[in-house]
Design goal:
Layout lengths: L19 E6 L2 E10 L2 H6 L11 E11 L2 E3 L8 E6 L5 E8 L7 E4 L2 E8 L2 H5 L6 E3 L13
């Protein structure tokens, strides 16, 4: 069963939750259950050493402010991931699609990135998640393009 379901209209009009992100774009809407990595140690660990992840799950990396430069790599990460980089409004700016397990090549998100969502590799493309997609989560403050209500 896939929890990251593409839904229409107000079907996702539920309350924002810390353990969930919602995404919306021209393609529709989706939600993922997430673990939040919001301190240096959690961000450094990320999804390393995991053998699998549910298709409806992900990890949201939260930085206290937009970063000058953000780049992720796949060292010690065993599953392919889509790495979705967002600015301070929660708007997708760049995606590293199907990042290769154990690859130590830097995958830059660019400057001004404050949030990063990792989901299973291939999901972003198959769902239509692209630059301009908006993410909704309580960690995104008053600058949110899609604020929590």
């Amino acid at each position: 069963m896939i929890l990251a379901t593409v839904l229409a209209g107000p079907a996702l009009a539920e309350v924002c939750r810390m353990d969930q992100v919602q995404l919306r774009g021209d393609w529709g809407e989706a939600r993922f259950r997430v673990e939040v990595a919001d301190d240096g140690q959690e961000r450094a660990q990320g999804l390393m050493y995991r053998d699998s992840m549910s298709s409806g799950a992900g990890m949201l990396f939260v930085y206290p402010r937009p970063q000058v430069a953000v780049a992720f790599w796949m060292k010690n990460t065993r599953i392919p991931l889509d790495i979705i980089y967002m600015d301070k409004t929660g708007t997708v700016r760049r995606i590293a699609h199907n990042a290769i397990p154990h690859d130590e090549t830097a995958l830059p998100g660019g400057s001004g990135i404050q949030y990063v969502l990792e989901i299973n590799g291939g999901l972003a493309a198959s769902m239509g998640i692209a630059a301009g997609t908006q993410l909704r989560h309580p960690a995104i403050g008053e600058d949110a393009a899609w604020p929590c209500e």
